[in-house]
Amino acid sequence: xxxxxxxxxxxxxxxxxxxxxxxxxxxxxxxxxxxxxxxxxxxxxxxxxxxxxxxxxxxxxxxxxxxxxxxxxxxxxxxxxxxxxxxxxxxxxxxxxxxxxxxxxxxxxxxxxxxxxxxxxxxxxxxxxxxxxxxxxxxxxxxxxxxxxxxxxxxxxxxxxxxxxxxxxxxxxxxxxxxxxxxxxxxxxxxxxxxxxxxxxxxxxxxxxxxxxxxxxxxxxxxxxxxxxxxxxxxxxxxxxxxxxxxxxxxxxxxxxxxxxxxxxxxxxxxxxxxxxxxxxxxxxxxxxxxxxxxxxxxxxxxxxxxxxxxxxxxxxxxxxxxxxxxxxxxxxxxxxxxxxxxxxxxxxxxxxxxxxxxxxxxxxxxxxxxxxxxxxxxxxxxxxxxxxxxxxxxxxxxxxxxxxxxxxxxxxxxxxxxxxxxxxxxxxxxxxxx
Length: 435
Fold this sequence. Notes:
The protein is α/β, with parallel strands linked by helices. Helices cover 35% and strands 11% of the residues.
């Protein structure tokens, strides 16, 4: 791979404005690819409120390649040899007593203490997707794509009010995420109804506002206490993220690169159709190498509406009556059907080495809860081969209360073999990750 300096690379790919605002990333000149030069993609997906029954897990109580698909996972029949069920992975970080138990999804990707921002929550560490993005994502349009749920319920799909994504940055701040397929489409394709001159004018106006804010912040900083300076520094980091997104938005609107054309979705799209379109857009972004690291918090309420369920998502999660139990199971089955649809898409996209995009990906699907408020033995499905060095088709039974970060560490180590440990991970999941 060619070596790039930080500034020359960013100037080429995102414009000179972005080159002035990012810190040094050691990963820019060493993004991980497979032995044949094809990049690895990572996808993390979460469903709120866990799963409905024990039917997620195979009945076998030891690691084996000879296992039967549970009834709930029947839609995965065509992909069974390419997926693994990983049992006994748990969130071990103690939740704050003030935080509703359903907030477990907030720390699904880092096992940090889950708490609502109104209690001044700061994540103890960035989520694994953001760690991966610094290593493999920095020479793409979007180092990471965080896609958020669309839900009306106060618990927002099990994430908590206002918390619709599963990503936290290295500053310990929640990443809001791109909410829904329509906004994801606009982020990828830009506004195709605005000409280049109009886009340049809009971009210039937004940059002027950003420059004004940053200038004022610098003048204020010397008058604040050390603690307030830290808070202000976090805010400045957020502004830098906004500025970088503006630069990318302008760049994407001016040139589409290799992203295949797809019609702009209607605004009223929701539920199952909206999720399938999101999967379509994710596959296109991965194929075009617009992003190598994607997260997606799936909605709950809109799926329930699509399948004509008459219960709300929170009642569903507590099995309040037979209707809730039936709705939960139907929602879970629909999630697996749509996941199989996504896998079909990725398998149909061929890469230069003759393998599929699915082969060159690592895809995890699960939840920060098993059921109700239970944070142990989480429902986890792992798919794809990461370009090689991964064994699939397994039912992996770990010791009880194995840290979920063992899985995330294993994935991070797959793209960065020099990584020794991460957060509270205790070991590599060697049954799957052979390297």
